Amino acid sequence: MLKIVSIVIRVRDLAAQTRFWSDALDYVPRDPPEDDWVVLRPRDAHAPCIALDAHGSERVLPPRIHLDIYAEDQASEIRRLTALGAREVPWDRRPADADYVIMEDPEGNRFCVVDRPGWPGWRDARTPTTSRRW
Fold it and tell me: Which residues contact 45 (CB under 8 A, 6 or more apart)?
């Protein structure tokens, strides 16, 4: 059996990216951060962690992999993420009926904010947990 527990993002400024992703996702450090590494875990849900690795890497567009982040209220989340330093990425081939908006974090790592107001996971995310499996 395999399970995705952590997704690693290469970053240049570990402190700034830790603040961005912590604020963006309401994640907290799983363990004390190291000089070049931190794993952020969900504060109140069972979901994969985000690990930030402070090692340079070449940025390739379009990226071979990106995060899809579900939003209960997509428009307000895009405004909030923009205020945190994210940017919307224009794409002239985006379908008119697309349920996602392409964004990038302050260092250009891309992710999509997907409109999912009726997703059953919102109920699970609001239910307090007493144990963590991540």
Answer: 124, 125, 129
